[in-house]
Write a structure and sequence with these properties.
The complex is a heteropentamer, with two copies of chain A, two copies of chain B and one copy of chain C. Chain A is of the alpha/beta class. Chain A folds into two domains: about 15-95 and about 175-270, Rossmann fold (3-Layer(aba) Sandwich), CATH 3.40.50; about 110-170, no CATH class. Chain A contains eight helices and ten strands. In chain A, helix 7 (about 215-220) crosses helix 8. By secondary structure, chain B is mainly alpha-helical. Chain B has one domain (about 65-270): Orthogonal Bundle (MetI-like fold). Chain B contains eleven helices and no strands. In chain B, helix 3 runs antiparallel to helix 8 (about 185-220), helix 7 crosses helix 8 (about 185-220) and helix 9 runs antiparallel to helix 10. By secondary structure, chain C is α/β, with parallel strands linked by helices. Chain C contains 15 helices and ten strands. The longest helix of chain C has 20 residues, at about 220-240. Classes of the chains: A alpha/beta, B mainly alpha, C alpha/beta. At the A-B interface, strand 6 and helix 3 of A face helix 7, helix 8 and helix 11 of B. The complex binds adenosine-5'-triphosphate (ATP) (2 copies) and magnesium ion (2 copies). One adenosine-5'-triphosphate sits at the interface of chains A and E. Chains B, D: This is ABC transporter permease. Chains B, D: It is found in: Cell membrane. Chains B, D: Keywords: Cell membrane, Membrane, Transmembrane, Transmembrane helix, Transport.
C-alpha cells in the first residue's frame, strides 16, 4: 500500500538556517510549579540539534521528562529557561507544520474515527478530497479498515492508538513528534508499523522525533538515539546509529544493531531504574 | 441500551436477552407509571378536597378545573391568548438564550471580560425583574416588546451561567491536541469546547425555556391586554379559581412540551454522552 | 403611546389618545362605564377621538405612563396624583371620577365587631401594606380613638379569594377593601357585614382623571373632548348599568374569560353598579346630576390631609400644581337628556 | 496560574517570568477594570440622564439613588428589612437546593423515577409561582413560611436540572474502575458522580441563590409587612423611585455577595478543574 | 523491599470447586451491539480453566478481544453466550476478591496519588492503618516515593500506570486481572516490575490473568500463555511454560524460553497481523 507524500507545506525557514539545525534546543530547563504541591524539575540543560529529515529517538526511564521535551518542542508547554527553535523560529506556540502522536490517544468522542483522523486537515483547511483519500489510505495501512464510521469508545486501546497515528500523519507534517506511538500494540503489529513508518518517513523526508520505550525500536528506526537520564532528565548520551538505509527488520538481528542496543541499555542499568 | 455496557453496582445483567428498543412496558415502565401517577394524584386531589370540604377558591377540584378547561378551550379567544404568550415566551427565550450563548462564549474566552462583566451581570440578575417590570413597560411599551424583554432577561442568566461553566469544562488534553494541529480559538471552540459544553447548555436550555414562559406571564401581569398571564389575572379577578387553574394547566403543558423538545434535541445532538453512559450504575 | 398627533392643537381636529387603565385587569369599573360605553356608543367618535387602552399595574404605574407619554390620560388614585405631583412627576388632575369614599371595613355576619372601637386587638386584612387600603384601615382605627400602630395588626391579604379565605378561616377579623371588591366576594357566596364609615371620609376623593402636565396646554381641547365623552358614558352607565355591562363584554370580551355573557351578566352588573355608586352623587337620579367631574377646594383639602396622614405626601401640594379645573366647563356641555333617553331604551345587540 | 500549562491559541507564553500569585494589576486587570467600568457606567448614567433630561420617575440618576441609599442605610428599620429578606432567601435557598440535591440524586440513580417524576416537576415548574403566590399565602400563611416556600420553589428547579445532568456526566471508565473494586451505588456516587457533578452543582447554586433572593422578594410583594420586597412596594407606592432603586442596589449587592461566596467555595472544592484548566486557549 | 500478603479475603468457594477450576470459562461468546453502528464479534467460543494460584498470560494481536475477555472476567461487561465462573460462582457482577489493572490508568483527578491507591481499601472498608502502610510500600516499590501527595495530572504516563498497579494490589486481591499493566514503562522498569510482580504473586498465592503485548514477558511470568487469534478472538493455542520457579531474568536468555517465545510468535506471523 503506497501512501504518497502530499508535498511539504513548510514555510521557508525564518533566518538562514542550515540543514544541520532544523530543530535547535539549547540549555533547555523545565521546572513544573504546581500551585498546590512541590515543584518538579523535569529537564535540565538539554542541548540538541536535529537536522532536516533526520529521525531521532528519545529513550529514558519512565518519568524522566520525555513527554515534557516533546510538549515543549510542540509549543504546548512553556519552558523555564533556554531556547527552542524549529526552522529558525523560536517556538512560543504550536507550529502548523508539526504533527504529533500523543501518549494517550486523545480522540474526540463525538467524532467517528474517520473524522478524528481528518481533524488536522480540517483545522488547516486543506483540500478535503485529497486528504480524505489519504486518511482512508492511512486507516487501511494501520488495519482500521471497516472502523471508519465507529466512535472511539467502540475501539480497543491499540486501535485508538493507531487512529491517533493516522491523525498525526494525515496532513503530512514536516516535523513529526511521536510520544510512544506503539506502546499499546502487540509486537507484530508494532514491527509492521515500524516498517511502515520508516517507509513514510523515507518517502516524505519528514523530521521525526520519536519517544519510545523500546530500545531495539529506537535503534532500528533512528539516525540518532538521545538517551535521557533519570528525573530530572539530562542528556546522558546521544548515540548515532550507523546502520545503512533502507533498513529492514533483518538488520535488528545483526551484531552491529545489538551493540547499539547494549550500549543504550547500559545507561539504564547504570541508573538502576528504581532504587 | 447503550454500547458501553457496564454491569452496574448491584444489578444483574441479562446477557442472554438481546437488547432491542421496543415499546415494552417492562423495559420502559414509565409508559404506564406516568399515567398511573397522574390518575392517583388526580383522584387523591378530587376526593381529598371533597373529604376535607376544601372550598373551590382555596383549591378547586380536578373535575372543576377540567370543566373550566373545556370551557376555555372552546373559546376562540383562549387560543389567541395562548398564541400571544407562546410567541412572547419563544421570542424571549431565543433572544435571552442567544444573548447568553454569545456573551457566555465571549466571557469564557477572555478571562478579563469575565472578571469585569460577571459582577455586573450577577448584580443585574438579583434585581427583581418583577419590581422593574413597571419600568420595563415604560421603557419598552405595553406591547409585545416588554414581555419579550422580560422573558429574555429571565431566561438569560441560567443559560449564561451554564454556558460559561460548560465552555470551561473542556478537557485540557483535547485542547492541547487541537492546538498542536494549529487550531485557533474558534476551531477549539467548535471542535472541543462546544461539544463538551452541550450537557451544560441543554441543562441551561431546559431551565431557560421554563423561565421564559414564566417571564412572559409575569410581563403580562404588569400590563397586558392579552395572553395567558393576563387571563390568569382576569380569572383570578373574576373569582374564577377553577378557570385560573385551567390556565395553569395549559401553562404546564406548554412547559412540558418545550422540555421534551429540548430533551429530544439533546439526545440527537449529544448522543455520545448517551452511548458512553453506564447502565444501571 | 398615542399622543403623537399634533393636530390636537387645532380645535376639534381628529386626535388619537391612549387611556391607561390603572389596573392590570379589565373589570366592571371605569374601563367599562367610561371607555367601553363611550367607544361603543360613538361618544369618542362624535368628538373625533380615537381612543385605545393600555393596562398598567396600578395607579402609580398609570401615572408614570401618562407622565412619560406612554399614555395620555388615566383615572388614577387622587392620593397618588398628589404624591406624584409632590415628587415633581409632571401629571395633573383634570376632572374627578370616583367621588364617594370607596373603602369600607367588612366583618363576618354575627361578628362581635360592630364599630371601630371593637377592633382593638384584632387583625385587619388589607390588600397590601403598600396600597390605599392600609392607610384607610389605620385612619379608620385612629378615628375610633385607637392607636393604629399598637391596637390592631394589619395583614396583607390581597383581594378576592385570598381575602375571603383569610376572613373565613379566621386569619383576620375584618377586611379593609373597596366596595366593588366586596361585591366580587359576595358574588362568590360569602356574606359580609359592613361597618359604617365615619364622616371624616366623606369628600376624600378616590379616582380622578389625570394627564401629563407637559402636554396639557397643547392638548387642552382634546382632553376636554375626552372628558365630555367620558362623562356622557358615565351618565349612560348610571342610567342603564346592565346595558353598559353588555357593552363592556362586547368591547372587552376578555372580561368573560371564556364564560357565557348571560351567565355572568347579573353578577357583573352588580359589581358595576357598586362601582358606579361610588362614582356618582349619592342623591338624586341620573337625570338630575350635573357638574360632572367637579372637585371642590374643600374636597381637595380633605384629600390632601388624608394623603399626608397616609404618608404618600409629606407636605402640602399647591392646588394649582395638581389640579386644572378649567376643562370641566366645556366638558359638561352635552345633551344630558339625550344620553339618558338612549340609555333607558338601550338593548344591546 | 494553573499547572497544566498550555500555550494557548495565539498567546505567547512568558516562560522567563516565574509564575507568582500577587495582587498585580497587570496580571489581574479586573482589579482596576471592575471599578473603572463602574465609574464609567455611573458617569454615563448620571450625565446621560441629565443630557436627555430623563425624569427621575423614568430612571433616577445615580446621585439621586445614592442620596436615597444613604438615607435608607441610616434608618434602623432598613436593616431589619434587609435581615428579613436575607433570612427568607437563605432559608428558601437551603431548602430548595437541598430538596433539589436529594431529589436529583434519587432521580438520577433510578431511571424509572426520572421518567415518572420529571414530567410532573417540569409541569409544576412552568406554573408561574407569582400566580400561585396568593395561594401560597393561603396555604402557608402571611409570615415567613410563604416567602421561604416561594424562594425554595423558585431556586429548586435550576438546581434540580443541573444536579441530574451533573450526576449523569460521570465517566463510564471511572465507574467501571470503582465497580471492579466492589463499590456500591453509594460509593460510586460519593467517589465519582458527585465530584464530576460539582461544576454543574455550582452552576446550579449560582443560579439558585440569585433566584432565591428573587423568590423572597416576590413573596413579599404578595403579602408582607417587612422585607426589601415590601420596601420596594412602599417606595414605589410613595413615588419614591430613587428610594426604590436604592433598594434594588442593595438587592444587587446581596446577590453579588452570595455569588462570590459560591464561587469561592467552588474554587476550594472543585480545585482540580482549575488545575487542569488550559491557560489562554 | 518486602510487601507482605494481607491474608486472603476470598469467600469459600460456592460449590465443591477443585483447585483445578478456579476460573472457568466455557463456550464464551461476545458480540458488541452498538446502537449506531454495525455489531462487532469480539470473542468466539473461548474455553479456559485457570487453577487457583496459577499465572496466566493472554497475548494476541491488537483488537482481538483481550480487554473484552478481562472485562467479562471482571464482571464489567455482559457476555453474549457461554458461562464464566470464578470460585464456582457465575460471574454476573464484579466480585470483591478481584483486583484489576486497566489498560488506561483511570485515576481520579480529585484524589492524590496516595488516595487513588487507597480506593479499593476504602471501598471495601479494610483496616485503614494496615492498608495505608501497604499502599506506601507499594508506591515505594514502583518508584513513586515522593509523589504520594501529587495529583494524577502531575505525573507522567508511566507513573500513572504504576499508580494503577499499586491500586490493583493494595487490597491483596485473590484474583488479579491486569490489562497491559507495563505498556507505558521503559524496558528496564518493566523488567524490574516483572520481577516484583512475580515475587508478590509467589508470596501471596494470587491467581493472575495478565494481558500483555510482550511475548517474552508472558513467557517469563506465566504458567500458561493463552494465544488469541485475530478478531474475532478465538483461542489459537494455550502454551504451558515449563520453566522452573522461582525464575529470574536470566531464564529469558535460556534456549527453552526462546523456544516458547518463537512458538508463540509463530502464531502472530501466521496471522499476518495487518493485511
Ligand atoms: N464498547 C465497545 N463497543 C463496540 N465494540 C467494541 C467495544 N469495545 C471493544 N469493541 C470491539 O471489540 C474488539 C475487541 O476489543 P478489545 O478492546 O477487547 O481488544 P484488545 O484485544 O484489548 O485490543 P488492544 O490490544 O488493542 O487493547 C475490537 O474490534 C473493538 O472494536
Ligand atoms: N503537568 C505537570 N505538572 C507537574 N509535574 C509534571 C507535569 N507533567 C509532568 N510532570 C512531572 O515531570 C516529570 C517528567 O514527566 P514526563 O511526562 O515528561 O515524563 P516521561 O518521560 O514522558 O515519562 P513516561 O515515560 O512515564 O511517560 C515527572 O516527574 C512528572 O511528575
Ligand atoms: Mg510520557
Ligand atoms: Mg485492550
Amino acid at each position: 500500500m503506497a501512501i504518497k507524500a502530499m508535498g511539504r507545506r513548510t514555510r521557508p525557514p525564518a533566518a538562514e538556517v542550515s540543514e544541520g539545525t532544523w530543530i535547535e534546543v539549547a540549555a533547555l530547563d523545565k521546572r513544573y510549579q504546581p500551585r498546590r504541591s512541590a515543584p518538579t524539575q523535569a529537564l535540565v540543560d538539554i542541548n540538541l540539534t536535529v537536522r532536516r529529515g533526520e529521525f531521532i529517538s528519545v529513550v529514558g526511564p519512565s518519568g524522566c521528562g520525555k513527554t515534557t521535551l516533546l510538549k515543549i518542542l510542540a509549543g504546548l508547554s512553556p519552558k523555564s529557561a533556554g531556547t527552542v527553535r524549529i526552522a529558525g523560529r523560536e517556538v512560543t506556540k504550536p507550529l502548523p507544520e508539526v504533527g504529533m502522536v500523543f501518549q494517550a490517544p486523545t480522540l474526540l468522542p463525538w467524532r467517528t474515527i474517520f473524522d478524528n483522523v481528518m481533524v488536522p486537515a480540517e483545522i488547516q483547511k486543506l483540500d478535503p478530497a485529497r486528504h480524505r483519500e489519504r486518511a482512508q489510505q492511512l486507516l487501511d495501512m494501520v488495519g482500521l479498515t471497516g472502523f471508519e464510521r465507529k466512535y472511539p469508545h467502540e475501539l480497543s486501546g491499540g486501535m485508538q492508538q493507531r487512529a491517533g497515528i493516522c491523525r498525526a500523519l494525515v496532513h503530512d507534517p514536516a516535523v513529526l513528534l511521536m510520544d510512544e506511538p506503539f506502546g499499546a500494540l502487540d509486537a507484530m503489529t508494532r514491527e509492521y508499523m515500524n516498517v511502515e513508518l520508516l517507509r513514510i518517513w523515507r518517502e516524505s523526508g519528514q523530521t521525526v522525533v520519536l519517544v519510545t520505550h523500546s530500545i531495539p525500536e529506537a535503534v532500528f528506526l533512528s539516525d540518532r538515539v538521545v538517551v535521557l537520564s533519570q528525573r530530572p532528565g539530562r542528556i546522558a548520551e546521544i548515540v548515532p546509529i550507523d546502520l545503512e538505509r533502507p533498513r529492514d527488520l533483518g538488520v535488528m538481528s545483526s551484531d552491529r544493531a545489538g551493540v547499539y542496543v547494549d550500549r543504550i541499555r547500559a545507561h539504564f542499568n547504570a541508573a538502576s531504574v528504581i532504587d | 441500551m447503550a454500547t458501553t455496557e457496564v454491569v452496574g453496582g448491584a444489578r444483574t445483567p441479562a446477557p442472554e436477552k438481546p437488547t432491542r428498543r421496543r415499546l415494552d412496558l417492562r423495559e420502559r415502565p414509565q409508559l404506564w407509571l406516568v399515567p398511573a401517577v397522574f390518575v392517583v394524584v388526580v383522584l387523591a386531589w378530587e376526593y381529598g378536597t371533597e373529604l376535607f370540604s376544601v372550598d373551590e377558591y382555596v383549591l378547586p377540584r380536578p373535575s372543576q378545573i377540567f370543566d373550566a378547561l373545556g370551557r376555555q378551550l372552546g373559546d376562540g379567544l383562549f387560543w389567541s391568548h395562548l398564541w400571544v404568550t407562546s410567541r412572547e415566551a419563544l421570542l424571549g427565550f431565543l433572544i435571552g438564550v442567544g444573548a447568553a450563548v454569545l456573551l457566555g462564549t465571549f466571557i469564557s474566552q477572555v478571562k478579563v471580560v469575565e472578571a469585569t462583566l460577571m459582577p455586573y451581570i450577577v448584580a443585574f440578575q438579583t434585581v427583581p425583574k418583577v419590581a422593574l417590570a413597571p419600568l420595563f413597560v415604560l421603557w419598552f411599551g405595553f406591547g409585545l416588546t416588554s414581555k419579550v424583554v422580560m422573558a429574555a432577561v429571565i431566561s438569560f442568566f441560567p443559560m449564561l451561567v451554564n454556558v460559561i461553566e460548560g465552555l470551561r469544562a473542556a478537557d485540557a488534553d483535547r485542547i492541547q491536541m487541537l492546538t498542536v494541529f494549529g487550531a485557533g480559538r474558534a476551531q477549539i471552540f467548535r471542535m472541543v469546547r462546544l461539544p463538551t459544553a452541550l450537557p451544560f447548555i441543554f441543562a441551561g436550555l431546559d431551565i431557560g425555556i421554563v423561565f421564559a414562559i414564566l417571564g412572559a406571564v409575569v410581563g403580562e401581569f404588569i400590563g397586558a391586554k392579552e395572553g395567558l398571564g393576563y387571563l390568569l389575572l382576569q380569572t383570578n379577578y373574576n373569582f374564577d379559581i377553577s378557570g385560573m387553574f385551567a390556565v395553569l394547566v395549559v401553562l404546564s403543558v406548554m412547559g412540558l412540551v418545550a422540555h421534551f423538545v429540548i430533551r429530544l434535541l439533546q439526545r440527537r445532538l449529544a448522543f455520545w454522552a448517551e452511548d458512553t453512559r453506564v447502565i444501571g450504575a | 403611546g398615542g399622543s403623537g398627533d399634533d393636530a390636537g392643537a387645532e380645535q376639534g381636529a381628529p386626535a388619537k389618545l391612549t387611556f391607561a387603565i390603572a389596573s392590570a385587569v379589565i373589570g366592571p369599573k371605569e374601563e367599562v362605564a367610561v371607555f367601553a360605553v363611550a367607544k361603543e356608543l360613538g361618544y369618542f367618535e362624535e368628538e373625533k377621538l380615537t381612543v385605545e387602552t393600555i393596562n398598567t399595574d396600578g395607579s402609580v404605574a398609570a401615572l408614570q405612563a401618562v407622565a412619560s407619554g406612554s399614555g395620555d390620560v388615566t383615572a388614577a388614585d387622587t392620593g397618588s396624583i398628589l404624591g406624584a405631583t409632590e415628587k415633581n412627576v409632571p401629571v395633573k388632575a383634570i376632572g374627578g371620577l370616583v367621588q364617594n369614599w370607596p373603602w369600607v371595613i367588612a366583618v363576618k355576619p354575627g361578628s362581635t365587631i360592630a364599630g371601630g372601637g371593637d377592633l382593638k386587638g384584632k387583625k385587619i386584612g388589607v390588600i397590601s401594606l403598600a396600597s390605599g387600603s392600609a392607610p384607610y384601615a389605620r385612619a379608620f382605627v385612629a378615628e375610633a380613638g385607637l392607636d393604629p400602630a399598637k391596637d390592631v395588626e394589619l395583614l396583607p391579604v390581597g383581594v378576592g379569594a385570598q381575602a375571603a379565605a383569610a376572613l373565613n378561616d379566621g386569619k383576620v377579623d375584618a377586611l379593609a377593601l373597596y366596595t366593588q371588591a366586596y361585591t366580587v366576594i359576595e358574588n362568590a357566596g360569602t356574606t359580609l357585614t359592613y361597618l359604617d364609615n365615619p364622616d371624616v371620609f366623606d369628600g376624600i376623593r378616590s379616582l380622578s382623571f389625570a394627564v401629563g402636565a407637559r402636554t396639557l396646554e397643547e392638548k387642552r381641547d382634546v382632553y376636554t373632548r375626552f372628558l365630555r365623552a367620558s362623562y356622557k358614558a358615565m351618565l349612560f352607565s348610571a342610567k342603564n348599568p346592565e346595558a353598559a355591562m353588555r357593552i363592556g363584554y362586547k368591547v372587552f370580551p376578555q372580561i368573560l374569560a371564556g364564560k357565557q355573557a348571560d351567565a355572568q351578566i347579573a353578577t357583573d352588573t352588580k359589581v358595576l353598579t357598586a362601582w358606579l355608586k361610588t362614582a356618582t352623587p349619592t342623591t338624586g337620579t341620573p337625570e338630575q346630576w350635573g357638574d360632572w367631574g367637579a372637585i371642590s377646594d374643600q374636597e381637595w383639602a380633605k384629600t390632601q390631609a388624608y394623603t399626608k396622614q397616609a404618608g404618600q405626601i409629606t407636605g402640602d401640594v399647591e392646588l394649582g400644581k395638581v389640579w386644572e379645573p378649567g376643562l370641566l366647563g366645556a366638558a359638561n356641555q352635552f345633551d344630558k337628556a339625550a344620553v339618558v333617553d338612549k340609555a333607558a331604551g338601550y338593548t344591546a345587540k
